[in-house]
Give the backbone structure.
Amino acid sequence: MNERRQKSYSIRVNAAELARSRQHPTHQANGDEERYAGDRYFMSFTKGLIHNPKTGLLQDPKDFVEFRRAIDDGFIDPFTDRVRHGAKYKVVNGNIVEEENPNFLNGFRQWEAPTAGVVHDLEGPDAQAVTMAPAPPLLDFTGNINLELIFEMAEVYELAILRDCPLNDFEKGAKNENLKASIGRLNTLGYVQNQNGRPRKVSQKGRRRLDRQTVFRGSSPGVEVGPYLSQFLLIGNRAVNGEDGVTTGKIAYGVLEINQKVPIATPGTDYMTDFTKYVEVQRGIAQPRESYAPGRRFIYTPRDLATYVHYDALYEAYLNACLILLGMGTPFDPGFDHLSGGGVAAQDPKTRRHANGFALYGGPHILNLVTEVATRALKAVRFQKFNNHIRLRPEALAARVELVRRNNECDSTIQNEFIPEALLKYVQGFLDKLENNGNGDLATSTLGNISAIAEGSYLLPMAFPEGSPMHPAYGAGHATVAGACVTILKAFFDTSTVLVKDSSNEYRFKRMEKGDNLVAFRANNDDDGKTLVEDTINNISEALTLEGELNKLAANISIARNMAGVHYFTDYYDSVRMGEEIAIGILEEQALTYPTDPFVFSVPTFDGEVVRIGRR
């Protein structure tokens, strides 16, 4: 027993040494917080503080300073002792007075885990051992308005315009004039042809342009192949009693089932398009839930996908994907599938072993790990959000654009109110680009279309009544968790497998054999997504690989938050990669604890490289 005790201790020491060997990076923000400190911090996250009812800007910069100090203190109490919450105070004739409305006082929203980034974990990279590049600042390195920031704000605006467009139209061959117009407007901005920031998937034929097959998709291998939605958000698997849940979207959860259909948020219903309501939300005043139409359907529109990520449990989509894959008998990574009893060796009687992994490399192991990484990811991203970048949300940047419009039109309601000159000067660039989109026609421009659904304003129509969560934009919690959980799935399962209907009419992710037919599922256009449609794929280049569908799942969940109006593209892009780094670190430490078993995880990254982890 003493020998075992010493061995256990040695492994813990080795894991600690591995953790200590990870260099803690220098965390660098984009500088907009300091750059515009004297301008009411107009490029920083201020939601939940006291806001001016006419301009929508922070009323007293000292409130932001105290908010920042409370974050740095790392304790919850200072948020009550020193930080004035916007629901408890209001601005009357330029003066800050206590709020007397009991509905506002009792129904305020709290900041969400602003101190989570300072805690420690005993597995995986420390929350501060990973980082993210600076978010796109308002100005680029030449001192001009940043075209990447304009472009990603345009993306969020366009997604709000298309919120009720069928997702099946986000695919080659589909015909949708509204989507065609949105793509055309984005391509006029020029950023896609001259990307100097995070790369987007674009058409490689001739000039680099977005098209139906690439627009609003992620930026990883396979995300541009096939339907917009990952199969893991639509299909189910076979139940223990033999019922086929694949085509009905029912996932076997033991003897229970998970229904992939979602409530239908009322089409055409958007929020925060009135400036008074916008300011109320920025003050952190709680709002009622959104309205729903009768019934359920498969995820069919961006609004449906936004609804999914409004109420999803932390790791819901990835646990579901894991259950689907296990139920299909998807082979594990070839590097260690002989240990799990679920791979190629297990399928051949000559090489099949008399014992399988189960608790070691088997179903319970992956089911645990795919969920375990999620809270590690949340803590790391909280540090980036609150302690480092403190980036403003798209709803606030859109309000800055609206403020410039009102100032240009000499709106009497904002006369004699303080509006920073820097805001008026630099945010004008958004108007210059998005009011004409290269053709000089306001009615057909991005902002012209927004004005038509935002009560004549340039506010961002939101899918949620409360707008964004009560924490900064960058990074994204959903995206960081997506990156971490999907990386675990890619480590365990054979990502080269493809989705087929095999010779026995079973749907599986497997290595293709004679008699297998490549397939894909979509929500049915003919009944507004109430059922699934199965398509046969005849071109091997269009096969849905497991790697691609997992990358697509991470992108769908992350970009769904953009569809709701609460995140930008860069929030997705950098966050999934940080989540990936966290998962890889956990796998490295897990590998130390299995000294008797040779195995290798082969993990294809979101950038297409392969990381190998294990014991040989």
User: Anything to note?
Assistant: DSSP finds 20 helices and twelve strands in the chain. The radius of gyration is 25 Å. The chain has a mean pLDDT of 93. The first strand starts at residue 89 and ends at 92.
